[in-house]
Specification:
With about 625 residues, this protein is α+β, with helices and mostly antiparallel strands. The protein has three domains: about 190 residues, 2-Layer Sandwich (Heat Shock Protein 90), CATH 3.30.565.10; about 130 residues, Ribosomal Protein S5, domain 2 (2-Layer Sandwich); about 250 residues, MutL, C-terminal domain, regulatory subdomain (Ribosomal Protein S8, Chain: A, domain 1). Helix content is about 35%, strand content about 20%. Strand 8 and strand 9 form a beta hairpin. It is elongated, with a radius of gyration of 31 Å. About 40% of the residues are buried. It binds adenosine-5'-diphosphate and magnesium ion.
Length: about 625
């Protein structure tokens, strides 16, 4: 209750003009939250200066020392005092804040850093006879002095926050701060694949220990980017990612998005860039999520590195002090581009699933000595006919995997169906091969030209039902089947109202519900494709789905989520025996169906092991 606070005097308070040092410290509060934010500003400056190599040295999590060395254009000696002055920048003239091509433009980083730490800038601009240096210590600017440096710029920031001890208390452990710095450097390294980066921990003095290094990328931009992403996110990411290259109404989207089966338990592998600037933008993250919604359960997160580029006037980067958020002039276009480009790429990927799944499985089998690094099994394969021909020529005598060994007396009681082992060469030529056996009433084992495929029949069928439901819905609405006697389902008043509010939408999906008084709902028709269903369970599932997805999601996504839920109810459960024809039909349908490489929860529906890999398991290769 401020009005009655006895500490507030009845006289009006005195208004003072703060001095420069105080102003800079306040500004620093926004720009420099922790060592990682200082590193971000300084590396961005190096990149803006056109550096080809950037070296970042850190001691004690950046608390005692941050040193950035670049080979960029340098700063003229006369300009050094200006560089550390507030609102002084070489990057814009202030006339057009919507025409920004550099990381920096606010002219705040260096004065802010100088206000809260001990900053030294040593630089030599191209053609200058010698280098010069300037120091800013807790806001006090020293004189420009001659210095020794062959070119580029070295910025040193010591004792960050010594001038604002309150800030020091908020810093985390050296390790945590170093981790945050590493994240910042990696994001910028992704944004600039043609620049070489080195990050070293120099806590112990001397050369220090290099904790991250990425060489300058060559080739076309996609090659350079792929190499850089391999370096930053690991080769597995790139090998399991789809190349994205799309455009819409002057906005361009490029980069790599991982297969749904390569999803993660949190959003740690999501990297978004707008006009080369790393951002954590809710709109873009939401769009990414929306694009994968169809393939991932809510606790899984897609992995992607995406670059959105547009004319600078179509996006405002001046809405966040650290420039981590942006505002699009037409947010709908940006969102739509991401969702449609990713969905398109995922559809093109067809039944391809993450190759690391097989890799991980195989890694678990491999005897200790052979483990080596994480192996990745590339599932991109030559065309089926080419492979079949190669197979016929090379390995006519390879043993059929599922040929039952006569003397096998092991625990095979649950090996349900061993099918005639005579190869059907045309079936093997298919990417998912010829079904050979059903194991444990759920796993279909198929033989391909050069390996084996194991299909999780429940997961695969669930996905196929889902894709079929979507197709049907798109073509003619989902066929409904009237119940002889309407089923009455008791819900809470609230739930009933929520469900009935969607009655029209549900009717297009073949589910016809009507109010039955109070919290009761009468189910008159159900989607024919589901056969006999437990209407109560279905309604409650749909309600959960509606509650979780909320209002913010697109209608279509909501419908698809409901369909996915329906598919789960309607698919073949594990435990059902299948005959050869039925299994082969499932494999062929998977090949023909987009997105069939993963189930509706983002798990793979099949894994493939190449013969060569199996041979390695047995030490034969
Ligand atoms: P901004 O980046 O927003 O312009 P800064 O305070 O970060 O503001 O930097 C002020 C100016 O100092 C920059 O505009 C640039 O001219 C110069 N500068 C800073 N760092 C470097 C660097 N590493 N190489 C060359 N010039 C630099
Ligand atoms: Mg800057």
């Amino acid at each position: 209750m401020r009005a009655t606070d006895p500490n507030i005097s009845p006289n009006p308070p005195v208004i003072r003009q703060l001095n420069e040092a105080a102003i800079n410290r306040i500004a620093a509060g926004e720009v420099v939250e922790r060592p990682a934010s200082a590193v971000k500003e300084l590396v961005e400056n190096a990149l803006d200066a056109g550096a080809r190599r950037v070296r970042i040295e850190i001691a004690d999590g950046g608390k005692t020392l941050i040193r950035i060395t670049d080979d960029g254009c340098g700063i003229a000696a006369d300009d050094l005092p200006l560089a550390v002055a507030r609102h002084a920048t070489s990057k814009i003239d202030g006339s057009d804040l919507l025409n920004i091509h550099s990381f920096g433009f606010r002219g705040e980083a260096l004065p802010s850093l100088g206000a809260v730490g001990r900053l030294t800038i040593t630089s030599r601009s191209a053609g200058a006879a010698e280098a010069a240096t300037i120091a800013v210590d807790g806001g006090r600017v020293g004189p420009v002095k001659p210095a020794a440096l062959s070119g580029g710029t070295v910025v040193e920031l010591r004792n960050l926050f010594f001038a604002t001890p309150a800030r020091l208390k908020f810093l985390r452990t050296d390790r945590a701060e170093m981790q945050a710095i590493t994240d910042v450097v990696k994001r910028l390294a992704m944004a600039e694949p043609r620049v070489a980066f080195t990050l070293a921990d120099v806590s112990g003095g001397g050369e220090g220990r290099v904790t991250f290094r990425a060489d300058a990328g060559s080739g076309d931009l996609f090659d350079a980017l792929a190499a850089r992403l391999s370096r930053v996110l690991g080769a597995e990411f790139v090998e399991n990612a789809l190349r994205i290259d799309a455009e819409r109404e002057g906005l361009a989207l490029s980069g790599f998005a991982a297969l749904p089966t390569y999803s993660r338990g949190s959003a740690v592998a999501q990297f978004l860039f707008v006009n080369g600037r790393p951002v954590r933008d809710k709109l873009l993250i939401g769009a990414l999520r929306g694009a994968y919604m169809d393939f991932l359960s809510r606790d899984r997160h897609p992995a992607a590195a995406l670059f959105l580029d547009c004319p600078p006037e179509r996006v405002d980067v001046n809405v966040h002090p650290a420039k981590a958020e942006v505002r699009f002039r037409e947010p709908g276009v940006a969102r739509g581009l991401i969702v449609s480009a990713l969905r398109h790429a995922l559809a093109e990927a067809g039944h391809r699933a993450s190759s690391t799944v097989a890799g991980a499985a195989l890694g678990a089998f491999r005897p200790e000595g052979q483990a080596g690094g994480a192996r990745v099994y590339q599932m991109d394969r030559p065309s089926a006919p080419a492979r079949a021909a190669a197979w016929a020529a090379q390995a006519p005598a390879a043993p059929g995997l599922a040929e039952p060994a006569a003397d096998w007396t092991g625990p095979s009681a649950r090996t349900e169906a061993i099918i005639d082992a005579a190869p059907a060469p045309d079936a093997e030529a298919h990417p998912l091969g010829a079904a050979r056996a059903q194991l444990h009433e759920n796993y279909i084992v198929a033989q391909t030209g050069d390996g084996i495929v194991i299909v999780d029949q429940h997961a695969a069928h669930e996905r196929l039902v889902y894709e079929r439901l979507k197709r049907e819905m798109a073509e003619r609405g989902v066929a409904a089947q009237a119940l002889l006697i309407p089923e009455i389902v008791e819900l809470s008043d609230d739930d009933a109202a929520r469900l009935l509010a969607r009655a029209d939408e549900l009717a297009t999906l073949g589910l016809v519900v009507e109010p039955f008084g109070g919290g009761a709902v009468a189910v008159r028709e159900t989607p024919a494709v589901l056969g006999e269903v437990d209407a109560g369970a279905l309604l409650r599932d749909i309600l959960d789905e509606l509650a979780d997805l909320g209002e913010s999601q697109a209608l279509r996504a909501r419908i698809e989520a409901v369909l996915s839920r329906m598919a789960c109810h309607g698919s073949v459960r594990s435990g059902r025996r299948m005959g050869a024809e039925e299994m082969n039909a499932l494999l062929r349908e998977m090949e023909a169906t987009p997105h069939s490489g993963q189930c509706n929860h983002g798990r793979p529906t099949y894994v493939e092991l190449k013969l060569a890999d199996i041979e390695k398991l047995f030490g034969r290769a």
